[in-house]
Amino acid sequence: MERRIVAEFDDSFSDLVQFVEGRRGRIIVGTLQSLGVHILPAPMARFRRTYPDVQFRVLGRTASVLADAIEAGDVDFALSTRPTVTGQLNYTELAKDDFVLVCREDDPLARETALPWEIFARYPLVATPPSSSIRPLTDATFREAGLSITPAYECDGELSICAAMIREGLGITAVPRLAMSLLGTDALAAIPLCKPSTGRSIGLIQHMGCSLSTAATRFRDQLENTIGRCAKAHSCPPNPTMRSKSFSI
User: Fold this and answer.
1) What SS3 string covers 82-119?
2) Is the C or the N end of the chain the one with fewer CB within 10 Å?
3) Which residues contact 158 (CB under 8 A, 6 or more apart)?
4) pTM (2 decimals)?
5) How many angstroms separate the Cα of 242 from the Cα of each of 105, 148, 197, 201?
6) Mean of the per-residue pLDDT values for the chain?
Protein backbone atom coordinates (compact mmCIF):
# COMPACT_ATOMS: atom_id res chain seq x y z
CA MET A 1 0.00 0.00 0.00
CA GLU A 2 2.76 2.44 0.96
CA ARG A 3 4.64 1.70 -2.27
CA ARG A 4 1.50 2.37 -4.32
CA ILE A 5 0.88 5.69 -2.53
CA VAL A 6 4.49 6.73 -3.10
CA ALA A 7 4.31 5.70 -6.78
CA GLU A 8 1.07 7.63 -7.31
CA PHE A 9 2.57 10.68 -5.58
CA ASP A 10 5.67 10.45 -7.77
CA ASP A 11 3.49 10.25 -10.91
CA SER A 12 1.38 13.21 -9.83
CA PHE A 13 4.43 15.27 -8.93
CA SER A 14 6.04 14.41 -12.27
CA ASP A 15 2.89 15.54 -14.10
CA LEU A 16 2.89 18.79 -12.13
CA VAL A 17 6.54 19.45 -12.93
CA GLN A 18 5.92 18.81 -16.64
CA PHE A 19 2.91 21.14 -16.57
CA VAL A 20 4.89 23.92 -14.89
CA GLU A 21 7.72 23.44 -17.39
CA GLY A 22 5.26 23.60 -20.29
CA ARG A 23 5.74 20.00 -21.41
CA ARG A 24 2.17 19.01 -20.51
CA GLY A 25 -1.19 20.75 -20.44
CA ARG A 26 -3.90 21.96 -22.81
CA ILE A 27 -3.91 25.11 -24.93
CA ILE A 28 -7.24 26.57 -26.04
CA VAL A 29 -6.79 28.80 -29.09
CA GLY A 30 -9.53 30.88 -30.67
CA THR A 31 -9.27 31.77 -34.34
CA LEU A 32 -11.15 33.19 -37.27
CA GLN A 33 -11.88 30.33 -39.64
CA SER A 34 -9.79 31.77 -42.47
CA LEU A 35 -6.78 32.21 -40.18
CA GLY A 36 -7.33 28.78 -38.67
CA VAL A 37 -7.15 27.23 -42.13
CA HIS A 38 -4.14 29.11 -43.47
CA ILE A 39 -2.00 30.18 -40.50
CA LEU A 40 -2.59 28.00 -37.44
CA PRO A 41 -1.93 24.35 -38.47
CA ALA A 42 1.77 24.62 -39.36
CA PRO A 43 2.87 26.31 -36.08
CA MET A 44 0.76 23.79 -34.15
CA ALA A 45 2.47 20.90 -35.93
CA ARG A 46 5.93 22.31 -35.15
CA PHE A 47 4.97 22.86 -31.52
CA ARG A 48 3.62 19.32 -31.12
CA ARG A 49 6.82 17.83 -32.51
CA THR A 50 8.71 19.50 -29.66
CA TYR A 51 6.02 19.10 -26.98
CA PRO A 52 4.00 15.98 -27.92
CA ASP A 53 2.20 15.81 -24.56
CA VAL A 54 0.60 19.26 -24.93
CA GLN A 55 -3.00 19.07 -26.15
CA PHE A 56 -4.77 21.65 -28.28
CA ARG A 57 -8.38 22.74 -28.55
CA VAL A 58 -9.14 25.11 -31.43
CA LEU A 59 -12.25 27.31 -31.35
CA GLY A 60 -13.12 28.64 -34.82
CA ARG A 61 -15.61 31.50 -34.51
CA THR A 62 -16.42 35.00 -35.74
CA ALA A 63 -14.43 37.97 -34.43
CA SER A 64 -17.17 39.16 -32.04
CA VAL A 65 -17.71 35.67 -30.59
CA LEU A 66 -13.95 35.26 -30.07
CA ALA A 67 -13.76 38.57 -28.21
CA ASP A 68 -16.60 37.43 -25.93
CA ALA A 69 -14.90 34.07 -25.35
CA ILE A 70 -11.69 35.78 -24.24
CA GLU A 71 -13.62 38.10 -21.93
CA ALA A 72 -15.29 35.04 -20.38
CA GLY A 73 -11.98 33.20 -20.00
CA ASP A 74 -13.05 30.36 -22.32
CA VAL A 75 -9.90 30.57 -24.48
CA ASP A 76 -6.27 31.36 -23.69
CA PHE A 77 -5.86 33.76 -26.61
CA ALA A 78 -7.21 34.24 -30.11
CA LEU A 79 -5.90 34.88 -33.60
CA SER A 80 -8.32 37.43 -34.97
CA THR A 81 -8.89 40.94 -36.25
CA ARG A 82 -8.70 44.09 -34.11
CA PRO A 83 -11.68 44.07 -31.70
CA THR A 84 -14.13 46.96 -32.06
CA VAL A 85 -14.43 47.26 -28.27
CA THR A 86 -11.24 46.59 -26.34
CA GLY A 87 -12.41 46.61 -22.70
CA GLN A 88 -10.08 44.20 -20.91
CA LEU A 89 -8.65 42.87 -24.15
CA ASN A 90 -5.08 43.39 -25.25
CA TYR A 91 -4.54 43.30 -29.01
CA THR A 92 -1.15 42.89 -30.70
CA GLU A 93 -1.18 43.52 -34.44
CA LEU A 94 1.03 41.15 -36.40
CA ALA A 95 0.14 41.64 -40.08
CA LYS A 96 -2.19 43.16 -42.64
CA ASP A 97 -4.41 41.01 -44.83
CA ASP A 98 -5.14 42.88 -48.07
CA PHE A 99 -8.41 42.61 -49.98
CA VAL A 100 -8.82 40.90 -53.34
CA LEU A 101 -11.60 40.86 -55.89
CA VAL A 102 -12.97 37.37 -56.51
CA CYS A 103 -14.45 36.47 -59.88
CA ARG A 104 -14.76 33.50 -62.20
CA GLU A 105 -11.48 32.24 -63.58
CA ASP A 106 -12.74 32.80 -67.15
CA ASP A 107 -13.94 36.36 -66.44
CA PRO A 108 -11.99 39.06 -68.34
CA LEU A 109 -11.32 40.68 -64.95
CA ALA A 110 -9.15 37.68 -64.05
CA ARG A 111 -6.52 38.84 -66.57
CA GLU A 112 -5.89 42.08 -64.65
CA THR A 113 -2.94 42.42 -62.27
CA ALA A 114 -4.84 44.84 -59.99
CA LEU A 115 -8.24 46.53 -59.98
CA PRO A 116 -9.65 49.71 -58.37
CA TRP A 117 -12.61 49.45 -55.99
CA GLU A 118 -14.72 51.44 -58.44
CA ILE A 119 -15.04 48.25 -60.49
CA PHE A 120 -17.85 47.22 -58.12
CA ALA A 121 -19.99 50.03 -59.53
CA ARG A 122 -20.10 48.12 -62.84
CA TYR A 123 -20.64 44.53 -61.66
CA PRO A 124 -23.20 42.84 -59.36
CA LEU A 125 -21.83 42.50 -55.83
CA VAL A 126 -22.20 39.26 -53.87
CA ALA A 127 -21.82 40.57 -50.31
CA THR A 128 -21.47 39.10 -46.85
CA PRO A 129 -24.02 40.31 -44.24
CA PRO A 130 -23.41 43.44 -42.12
CA SER A 131 -22.82 41.20 -39.09
CA SER A 132 -19.72 39.65 -40.69
CA SER A 133 -16.18 40.91 -40.06
CA ILE A 134 -15.73 41.54 -43.82
CA ARG A 135 -18.77 43.67 -44.65
CA PRO A 136 -17.97 46.69 -42.41
CA LEU A 137 -14.52 46.91 -44.04
CA THR A 138 -15.86 46.75 -47.60
CA ASP A 139 -18.62 49.27 -46.82
CA ALA A 140 -16.05 51.65 -45.30
CA THR A 141 -13.83 51.31 -48.36
CA PHE A 142 -16.74 52.05 -50.70
CA ARG A 143 -17.44 55.24 -48.73
CA GLU A 144 -13.76 56.20 -48.82
CA ALA A 145 -13.77 55.73 -52.60
CA GLY A 146 -16.93 57.83 -52.94
CA LEU A 147 -18.99 54.86 -54.11
CA SER A 148 -22.61 54.04 -53.33
CA ILE A 149 -22.84 50.28 -53.76
CA THR A 150 -25.96 48.22 -53.11
CA PRO A 151 -25.29 44.48 -53.08
CA ALA A 152 -27.15 42.51 -55.72
CA TYR A 153 -26.96 39.49 -53.41
CA GLU A 154 -26.39 39.26 -49.66
CA CYS A 155 -25.26 35.86 -48.47
CA ASP A 156 -25.65 35.23 -44.73
CA GLY A 157 -23.78 31.98 -44.28
CA GLU A 158 -20.59 30.20 -45.29
CA LEU A 159 -18.28 31.95 -47.76
CA SER A 160 -18.44 28.80 -49.86
CA ILE A 161 -22.03 29.79 -50.75
CA CYS A 162 -20.76 33.14 -52.06
CA ALA A 163 -18.19 31.22 -54.09
CA ALA A 164 -20.87 28.99 -55.63
CA MET A 165 -22.87 32.07 -56.64
CA ILE A 166 -19.80 33.62 -58.27
CA ARG A 167 -19.07 30.40 -60.17
CA GLU A 168 -22.60 30.62 -61.61
CA GLY A 169 -21.80 34.09 -62.92
CA LEU A 170 -24.09 35.97 -60.52
CA GLY A 171 -21.47 38.55 -59.59
CA ILE A 172 -18.15 39.28 -57.90
CA THR A 173 -17.06 39.93 -54.34
CA ALA A 174 -14.24 41.33 -52.21
CA VAL A 175 -12.61 39.35 -49.40
CA PRO A 176 -9.32 39.41 -47.50
CA ARG A 177 -6.75 37.26 -49.25
CA LEU A 178 -6.61 34.70 -46.46
CA ALA A 179 -10.38 34.24 -46.62
CA MET A 180 -9.92 32.72 -50.09
CA SER A 181 -9.12 29.47 -48.27
CA LEU A 182 -12.81 29.28 -47.28
CA LEU A 183 -14.16 29.92 -50.77
CA GLY A 184 -12.82 26.82 -52.42
CA THR A 185 -10.64 28.15 -55.20
CA ASP A 186 -11.65 25.88 -58.09
CA ALA A 187 -12.60 28.00 -61.13
CA LEU A 188 -12.08 31.26 -59.20
CA ALA A 189 -9.48 34.02 -59.53
CA ALA A 190 -8.35 36.56 -56.95
CA ILE A 191 -7.08 39.96 -58.12
CA PRO A 192 -5.53 42.51 -55.73
CA LEU A 193 -7.67 45.59 -55.07
CA CYS A 194 -6.22 49.09 -55.03
CA LYS A 195 -7.29 52.74 -55.06
CA PRO A 196 -7.78 52.72 -52.13
CA SER A 197 -5.59 49.98 -50.71
CA THR A 198 -7.50 48.27 -47.91
CA GLY A 199 -6.65 45.45 -45.54
CA ARG A 200 -7.77 43.98 -42.26
CA SER A 201 -5.54 43.90 -39.23
CA ILE A 202 -4.50 40.43 -38.02
CA GLY A 203 -3.18 39.87 -34.53
CA LEU A 204 -3.40 38.13 -31.18
CA ILE A 205 -6.00 38.98 -28.53
CA GLN A 206 -5.54 38.15 -24.86
CA HIS A 207 -7.33 39.11 -21.65
CA MET A 208 -5.31 41.69 -19.72
CA GLY A 209 -6.12 40.16 -16.34
CA CYS A 210 -5.43 36.51 -17.16
CA SER A 211 -2.04 34.83 -17.08
CA LEU A 212 -1.22 31.98 -19.43
CA SER A 213 0.26 28.59 -18.65
CA THR A 214 3.87 28.01 -19.63
CA ALA A 215 2.80 25.94 -22.64
CA ALA A 216 0.25 28.53 -23.81
CA THR A 217 2.77 31.36 -23.41
CA ARG A 218 5.37 29.42 -25.34
CA PHE A 219 2.98 28.66 -28.21
CA ARG A 220 1.66 32.24 -28.30
CA ASP A 221 5.22 33.56 -28.60
CA GLN A 222 6.01 31.03 -31.34
CA LEU A 223 2.87 32.01 -33.25
CA GLU A 224 3.64 35.71 -32.87
CA ASN A 225 7.20 35.24 -34.14
CA THR A 226 6.06 33.07 -37.06
CA ILE A 227 3.45 35.52 -38.31
CA GLY A 228 5.76 38.46 -37.67
CA ARG A 229 8.52 36.94 -39.80
CA CYS A 230 6.09 36.13 -42.60
CA ALA A 231 4.67 39.64 -42.58
CA LYS A 232 8.14 41.19 -42.62
CA ALA A 233 9.38 38.99 -45.46
CA HIS A 234 6.06 39.00 -47.37
CA SER A 235 6.54 35.30 -47.92
CA CYS A 236 3.89 33.31 -46.09
CA PRO A 237 3.55 29.99 -47.93
CA PRO A 238 0.51 29.97 -50.21
CA ASN A 239 -2.26 27.42 -50.14
CA PRO A 240 -1.25 24.99 -52.89
CA THR A 241 -4.80 24.95 -54.28
CA MET A 242 -4.95 28.74 -54.54
CA ARG A 243 -5.36 30.27 -57.98
CA SER A 244 -4.59 33.83 -57.12
CA LYS A 245 -2.68 36.78 -58.54
CA SER A 246 -1.20 37.52 -55.11
CA PHE A 247 -1.20 35.68 -51.81
CA SER A 248 0.92 36.71 -48.84
CA ILE A 249 0.24 38.35 -45.54
Assistant:
1) CCCCCCCEEEEEEEEEEEEEEEECCCHHHHCCCEEHHH
2) N
3) 182
4) 0.74
5) 12, 31, 22, 22
6) 83
